[in-house]
Amino acid sequence: MRFEFSTLWLRRLPFCLGALAMLSFFPGCTKRQTLVEAGDHDQILHIGNGTEPQELDPDIVTGVQEYHIIMSLLEGLVTEDPVDLHPVPGVAERWDISPDRKVYTFHLRANAKWSNGDPVTAQDFWESYKRILTPSLGSEYSYMHFVVKNAEAYNTGKITDFSQVGYKVIDDHTLQITLNNSTPYFLSLLTHQSWYPVNIRTVAKYGDPYLRGNKWTRPGHYVGNGAFVLAKWRVNDVIEVRKSPTNWDRDRVRLNAIRFYPIDNEDTEERAFRAGQLHITETLPLSKIDYYKANYPGLLKIGPYLGTYFYRVNVTKPPLNDKRVRKALAMAIDRGSIVTNVMKGGQLPAYNLVPPGTAGYTSRTHLEENIAEAKRLLAEAGYPGGKGLPTIELLYNTSEAHRTIAEAIQQMWRTRLGVNAQLVNQEWKVYLDSQRTLNYQVCRGSWIGDYVDPNSFLDMWLTGGGNNETGWSNPEYDRLIAQAAATADPAGRLEVFQKAEAILMDEMPEIPIYFYTRVYLKRPEVKGWYPTLLDNHPYKYVYLESEKK
Amino acid sequence: MLRFIFKRVLEAIPVLLIVATLTFLLLKIMPGGPFDTEKVTTPEIKKQIESYYGLDKPVWKQYVDYMDRLIFHGDLGPSYKYFGWSVNELLAGSLPISLELGCYGLAFALVFGLIAGIIASLRKNTAGDYVPMSIATLGICIPSFVTGPLLILLFALKLRWFNTSGWYFPRDRVLPAITLGLYYMAYISRLTRGGMLEILNQDFIRTARAKGASEWRVIWKHSLRGGLLSVVSFLGPAISGIITGSLVVETIFQIPGAARFFVMAAFNLDGPMLMGTTLVFAVLIIVMNLLVDIAQVWLNPRLRFEE
Questions:
Q1: Which residues are within 8 A (CB) of A468 and not within 5 positions of it... i.e. 6 or more apart?
Q2: Could you report the average pLDDT of every consecutive run of 10 residues in chain B (307 residues)?
Q3: What is the pTM of this model?
Q4: Which helix (DSSP H) or strand (DSSP E) does residue B130 occupy?
Q5: Which of A26, A175, A295, B8 could form an S-S bond across to A122 if both were Cys, CB 3.0 to 4.6 Å?
Q6: Chain B window 88-117: which residues touch A at a Cβ cutoff of 8 Å?
Q7: Hey, are the CB atoms on B94 and A264 less than 8 Å from each other?
């Protein structure tokens, strides 16, 4: 009997412990307020922000996630309109442009302040621009300044006297910038993080301002001039910014704080959204798009995004050094099917490289999907019905979406042209290395515009350009891109880009596949957050307002 | 015993040196560079960055510099991925969290694994045996990237008892600990059952029962120590697995632990971070194995520290 009794007790032990554990969680569990509910009440926005930022120094980082945080902490001469991102006055309250449109004079507002209370002066901008162009800093976005006179020469070490570069401090509140050419997109460029000011005195306090590894970006150290100040940075956990008491436009700011969560797993992010832990997600898993379309169309947001998904073709090796083969491959892809059956996120099939409507530019070149013509080109190149054509290697970086697209295209090439392709996937850094060293035949690529202008998509294909990575070179194309830069008349300039893109699409060192969209989840109470081409959302216009119940 | 510990610590030094050297060399063999990005920078800029991190020096010099900093200053170097942070700082912030998570996972596995195993051994070939052992088999088979989301679905999204992710409140520890510990709990329960069955069949147990010792005393005093030997020897690999294997759990539950750095560093070619995490984990595993060995001798008088 004793035996029975004691095992009975033992048998119940796990249940007792379990019940005890659960009981201890029950109070406060049942009617808990979610983070989002609390945030709605206190004007605290919870955002899923992809990956952990590498740094919060605007002169060093290049990623979009970093930019989305930095744009709350710093403000450039001009800033972005929340609806369509056109440049609006930032630290500069107004500016004059010389008749030849090469000299810009910015008048800084007197009440612009750093978060430590110091005024933001023209000298601050001059120092910041000197910093980003100083070679020892190794800033990867320094090229954004290359439209300025002598900026490239200083950055590459050809000149060492910074006073020769086209920035000039007229007085505390006046800054003059001299450009190489009239650059129609110059004001849009200025909204980029590489043009933000940094408080050089603060930077110098925590290390050499012209070297990496500076600790000035820590909470408590960070001095910014944006609408928010850095309050918390816990790696792989959360970054919190709070409303700045010193920003000149603080009366407009309605959010009290923003919390950025670096959630790199998209399923985890979607679950956090469902549980009321996030107002806005960075992305949405492909597999969940149909579910949200059917059940919560109000939460699913599909916005435009200035980016193109394409395949690079290594033009230096046969058989792909023959443009007829490249074109045949491009013509045999059914982009509509990829967009509707694989991506499902409202992406547009791409029949050219520059996304339509980029700063008023829509390409007249339209790649034809024509299997008969593709077969003819292939036969003309000496491979009738794909005979004699060696298997083509199609390289992509490891990812579910890239693999699915590659498989679809592999299938299309085989059934439509009789061309065999072999899929090869590599880890990110290895893939980048293969791409850079032209150690591939066809390789997945993508480009997100740095600024809203066709130039951002077209100047990468210049001979020897760092992002060309196809071995392709065309003197006429190079000439046209240079001509566009020197053309002052906006319409005439776009016309030059039309000619350039026609050459690119005829030579086909890249095969465009689709234009990106941004697919994410957003709660309805987030107001002042508009779909924008670069997916930037100036936070000072954003606020939380629940519908009246 | 002190001599035994001293000897083991001495042995650990060459092991760690070999681990460090091998990791360093493997990193150098890997294709691609840590500063390759999708938007390619000019060669001049890349050279500046590489020279800042000393990557323009010959490999042997990089190795000597690294070992010098490591051994004489305890400095694991700057992260190549997180520009503003040193590996020391990042690990100081994340390692305690991984260890905390590991402790909860292990505690969960031990408490429930032992209880289930003991019950099963006492109720051999009855429902009380089959049910927990079937669950254990399932627990061993189902990987944590399946159990994690399932637990979240049920307890966080349906019942709303817990948050789906994060590491803020005490209750945020529950689901990750269960997810992490489930496999080990299952394994421990099977080992406990096996060990206990073997002991319970021994003559001295029959003698104890015949003497009229209470069942509680039979289990606690006479059987458990011997029955747990296999569990204890499993603890060594289990602890290593829990420490290095919490990546999945940390990712699913968005926990700012060190295991994520460990794996991501390999993808990012973040050399110092990979070296740092590898070495720290190696030290942890060596220490844990030592503790397990000590526990084994303590439990089994047939073993001695002289080996």
A1: A460, A461, A462, A509
A2: 85 92 90 82 85 90 92 91 91 92 93 90 86 86 90 91 89 92 91 89 86 82 82 85 84 91 88 92 88 83 66
A3: 0.89
A4: helix B127-141
A5: A175
A6: 90, 93-94, 111-112, 115-116
A7: no
